[in-house]
Amino acid sequence: MILPIVAYGHPVLRKVGEDITPDYPELKTLIANMWETMYASNGVGIAAPQVNKAIRLFVVDSEQIINNLEDDEKNDYPGDNGIKEVFINAHIVETGGDDWAYNEGCLSIPKVREDVNRPETVTLRYVNENFEPRQQTFTGVTARVILHEYDHIDGKLFIDHLKPLKRRMLKSKLDDISKGKIRVDYKMLFPK
């Protein structure tokens, strides 16, 4: 089932997500719905707060980015083949490499894109959908998508990484989103 995506201004986007246990109600259904919602809205990742759940869960499919790169662009991301993965109770172990800029957007903040600096690599400790423990290092675009989704489970948004002047320049767009004054081709849940 395609779920509505929470719009900028909704308080759930600013909550730090809670760790969950394997008996979290309807977890397999929630994960399936998150995948369906992400693909229906042309996303490459979606976090539980974006579907109105303040828990530490997100899904990422960076394979679709890597697979759509031109051959010469793939050289920009050595060692990044993309992933399709469920991340539960994720916690950053470390980040590394140089910060680099990339133009990011967010399903909860539609029609706003800005360059955001993030580290080249991230090492995460998490469990997968079967609650099997994992610790893995990700790089390139995959690391970026993971860090973007990780921000969501920590109550942060990509716009928080922008300089204050840039954020002030976006204020009217952000206000319009929070008031529901935006048209997108997916269902959104606006703040009350």
TrEMBL record:
Fe cation binds at C106, H148, H152. Its EC number is 3.5.1.88. HAMAP family: Pep_deformylase (MF_00163). It comes from Chitinophaga solisilvae. One of its GO terms (molecular function) is peptide deformylase activity. It catalyses: N-terminal N-formyl-L-methionyl-[peptide] + H2O = N-terminal L-methionyl-[peptide] + formate. Removes the formyl group from the N-terminal Met of newly synthesized proteins. Requires at least a dipeptide for an efficient rate of reaction. N-terminal L-methionine is a prerequisite for activity but the enzyme has broad specificity at other positions. It comes from the Bacteria. Pfam families: Pep_deformylase. GO terms for biological process: translation. Binds 1 Fe(2+) ion. This is Peptide deformylase. The active site is at E149. Keywords: Hydrolase, Iron, Metal-binding, Protein biosynthesis. Its cofactor is Fe(2+). The keyword Metal-binding applies. InterPro entries: Peptide_deformylase, Peptide_deformylase_sf. Belongs to the polypeptide deformylase family.
